[in-house]
């Protein structure tokens, strides 16, 4: 397990962290997210479970990223930096290239 350190965003921005987990034995996943301000204060957090996860683990991470974005905007945070350990998902979120992977519908949802 790697330990992540908190990177302080510049004043006025909010850092949104997300992560996903998958238990293949029971096909259940979980996602978690946390939002911090530039002082490191927790501004919001959320967890959710995913039932009947069929498909690659990246689906869980992609859902976690989209939930993090949705949650941040629902809370009224618009100037955000999103971080997570799913580098492929983050790269796809930032790209406007046509998406042809299993997470395409999730990425399209995130961009709307």
TrEMBL record:
Domain of life: Eukaryota
Residue ranges of domain RNase H type-1 in the record: 18-111
InterPro entries given in the database record: RNase_H-like_dom_plant, RNase_H-like_EbsB-rel, RNaseH-like_sf, RNaseH_domain, RNaseH_sf
UniProt GO MF annotations: nucleic acid binding; RNA-DNA hybrid ribonuclease activity
Pfam families: RVT_3 (PF13456)
Protein name as annotated: Uncharacterized protein LOC111285158 isoform X1
Organismal lineage: Eukaryota, Viridiplantae, Streptophyta, Embryophyta, Tracheophyta
